[in-house]
# Entry
Amino acid sequence: MRVMHIVSGRLYGGVETLLVTLARCRNLCAAMEPEFALCFDGRLREELAETGAPVHLLGEVRARHPASVMRARRRLRELINTRSIDVVVCHLPWTEAVLGAVARRAGVPLVFWMHGPASGRGWLERWAALTPPDAAICNSNYTAKSLPMIFPGIPCDVIYLPVRSSELNRESQDNRQARLQMRREFDTPPEATVIVQVSRLERWKGQLVHLAALAQLREIPGWIAWFVGGTQNPDEVAYGAELKAAASTLGIADRVRFLGERPEVAKILAASDIFCQPNVEPEPFGIAFIEALQAGLPVVASASGGALEIIDSSCGTLVPAGKPETVAEALPKFINKTGPPKPLWTSGPARARQLTDPTAQMSLLAASLEAVSSRRALASERRSVGIA
# Structure
């Protein structure tokens, strides 16, 4: 089954991380042969190409320029025909709106992969709703609840995203040395308790709440905070400057490190002690939570969205969203190691495997897409013989 995954490719976040994982793990599921179609060249195209998976550029698309939309649609139509594509998967409403109709006209099963909650009110969602897919995949039960806002009555499977394990052994001699080296690089004492957040610099990710909580812990010695995440647009640049100013105003600038975008996230997590991401709006799923659990870190997160499906008492603590004081109450038990017993520091990898093991999740994805193809083929057969 040859599957064409389509996405804009302009930015890089959780959706793009998923696509690279699908490319890297394609050997785990022989039933699927993934290909990828992007409108914009950049980091995603480069990382996909490095895996050896087929990657196709459709050309840059601007919704306000109809000619660019038509060019991309023609290119996609050619690819579907020449590459003998069996299923088309559109990621995010923008892709469904701009390119979903091409699969429809080609008679190829169309699947919408929903990565975040919908309201049904935005112009992109209303545009996407004009091309109902044959089925949908949602990255969490939280996300799935709002699918009817765009596509009422569409069959849906909830499939947690496959997340590859870093396979770093925190206790190995090599990793202990790497841990020390990374702490030296980030001006962090070897004995410090490192609190880390890895996320895009977007306001809803809760970095300001995190900083406000840390300010309440000024009198507790021994902790250092690392914020990992780069900027991809002017809004994020401005927000990054606001975060640095806030750290200074709160009097904790000497204990906070803004590391920017870093490729070695797994090693950074392995060199840390606590993962904290107090979202002010729900996380649709939370790949970063899974990666933190894989690294053996306890997680402090907001009790909303995908975190409710990932974090339980065996691997972390959930706190009310938007309240720095509750984050400040949760962190000291991990800083001082006076809270839950040691199993909390060791059960994370098992929890991550249970939810996102790539072999299991790739098999679930293949079964879902095969079911869509079978239903579409049966419907076509019934129409051909005049059965309603």
User: Anything to note?
Assistant: The domain at 2-162+357-384 is CATH 3.40.50.2000 (Rossmann fold). The CA atoms of residues 298 and 316 lie 5 Å apart.
